[in-house]
Design goal:
Layout (H helix, E strand, L loop, with lengths): L6 E4 L3 H11 L3 E4 L5 H6 L7 E4 L9 E4 L2 E5 L4 H6 L1 H6 L1 H6 L6 H6 L2 H7 L5 H8 L3 E6 L2 E6 H4 E3 L2 E2 L6 E8 L5 E8 L9 E9 L4 E9 L6 E2 L1 H5 L8 H10 L14 H25 L1
Parallel strand pairs: 1-3, 2-3
Antiparallel strand pairs: 4-5, 5-10, 6-7, 6-10, 8-9, 11-12, 12-13, 13-14
Helix pairs in contact: 11-12
The structure holds flavin-adenine dinucleotide.
The site of flavin-adenine dinucleotide has 27 residues, from strand 2, helix 7, helix 8 and strand 10.
Length: about 290
């Protein structure tokens, strides 16, 4: 199919994009990498009156370190994030997740901000930024505001961003000493959307997990933090028993969706398996550090 009839505007400044968003609100769609938006337009799942192309807004692209946090501009391409030495050094969880985000051609165009704004429940990056306690900055003609990742993802493709707000940047705390990361997903082929997945940032001395952020994706309607699974192991020496306790407690954290990728029971099983594996890996990494 072909995209519906709409007006196209190429923004030459952030101010211009914000003015257009203020004028058209719900009737406008921001075009970043277009890797998700163009298919939905062509399938007529989305029918905006106006497309606001932000690809010339160089101010929105780039990666830098400021005040113990990595700032990733919304328009930074996935490929640039994957190649970034800053990300490799300070955000190893994101570096490890990047090769799982689609395929090379998609990563060359797709943007970090586009993935966060879209909030696909099977996407890797929303789960990673939630595990890392990131802050998302959005702006409209009314001003700028910061939103904690924990408050940003509201449901299926639903976020706290209002229709007149442009996503500007994501600030992610640098990995602290004593913290280890692990990332795992299951998909039919490398680059396909995940069937189940987990991003983990854990505090452990290699024997005991003192705290952990375990964020699951592809099974719920949004990236989901597992508090009960972590409570089942916090402060205990890592063992077969604590691994089983975390896996069992996960059913109190997750309520998977049935979809074409598998039944709810199948997804819960996969997420449990990943829980054991991801924590095993976190412990191994802490021991090797
Ligand atoms: C074959 C294929 C496989 C894929 N596999 C994966 C995968 O495994 N994992 C994964 O995470 N993704 C996957 N994707 C999606 C890909 O990662 C997209 O790049 C990403 O989801 C959206 O980024 P984009 O820049 O292309 O956004 P676009 O498609 O341009 O926009 C997506 C949505 O976000 C909004 N938006 C974009 N930028 C902003 C902004 N700055 N402010 C406000 N709103 C904004 C748009 O209006 C639109 O609603 C896949 C895509 C394809 C085509």
């Amino acid at each position: 199919m072909k995209a519906p009839k709409m007006t196209y505007a190429r923004a030459d400044s952030v101010a211009q994009a914000l003015a257009l968003l203020a004028e058209h609100g719900d009737g406008a769609n921001v075009l970043a990498g277009g890797q998700s938006l163009m298919p939905t337009l062509n399938m007529r799942l989305s029918k905006p009156d106006l497309l606001i192309d932000i690809n010339r807004l160089e101010d929105l692209a780039g990666i830098s370190v400021e005040d113990d946090a990595v700032r990733i501009g919304a328009l930074t391409r996935h490929a640039a994030v994957q190649r970034s030495p800053i990300v490799a050094e300070h955000l190893p969880l994101i570096a490890e997740a990047m090769p799982h985000v689609a395929h090379v051609a998609v990563r060359n165009r797709g943007t970090f901000g586009g993935s966060i704004a879209l909030a696909d429940p099977a996407a890797e990056l929303p789960a990673c930024i939630l595990a890392l306690g990131a802050t998302i900055t959005v702006e409209s003609v009314r001003g700028r505001r910061d939103i904690a990742a924990a408050d940003f993802f509201k449901g299926l493709f639903e976020t706290e961003r209002q229709p007149d707000e442009l996503l500007i940047e994501i600030r992610i705390p640098c990995q602290r000493p004593g913290t280890v990361h692990a990332f795992m997903e299951l998909s039919r082929r490398q680059g396909d959307f995940a069937i189940a997945g987990v991003a983990c940032a854990a505090e452990t001395d290699g024997e005991t997990v003192t705290d952990a952020k375990l964020v699951y994706f592809a099974s719920e309607d949004r990236p989901t933090l597992a508090a009960n699974a972590v409570a089942a192991i916090a402060g205990k020496v890592w063992s077969d028993e604590s691994r089983s306790a975390a896996m069992a407690a996960l059913s109190e954290d997750l309520d998977p969706m049935d979809n074409l990728q598998g039944s709810a029971a199948f997804k819960l099983h996969l997420q449990r398996v990943l829980t054991g594996r991801v924590l095993d890996q976190a412990i191994e990494r802490a021991r090797a550090a």
